[in-house]
Task: structure prediction
Amino acid sequence: MRNRGLKCWGALAALAALGACATVPPDRPGSELPARERYMPYVGPPIERFTWMMPIDGFEALSDSELIVFMGANTAYYLKVWAPCGTKGLRFSHGVGLSSSVGGTVTARLDSVQTQGMSCPISEIRPLDYKRMKEEARAGHAGQPDVQR
Result:
């Protein structure tokens, strides 16, 4: 097992070295993904913090510095981090984690999104009305697939 861990760390170090050669400008044209348009109408006003009681159920990058994290069937948050997050931005991340400096609470300007060995400070947190988004998608697109994440 130990040898396998060393191989994984070696591979991650090699990827990090390659990624360091290609940084992404934070405000380049076309850095927003189509998913952003779908989620933003359901994003609420900024909040200072949220309590994090369960594992992240998934995430979706909206740009190199914005993502939606899902915390269960109907709970999701929009997070904006100092741009870009990681060597290429959030849209190239395969997984994310969250820091919590105060026992299960994620706080804007204090905690961060963790991805690919990078710690990206959270500048903004907004709740996402994911339940309403799914309901409206079902009502407006009868016969078409539901909103997927």
Notes: The beta strands are 49-51, 58-61, 66-70, 76-81, 97-98, 105-107, 112-115, 118-128. Confidence is low (pLDDT under 50) at residues 1-31.
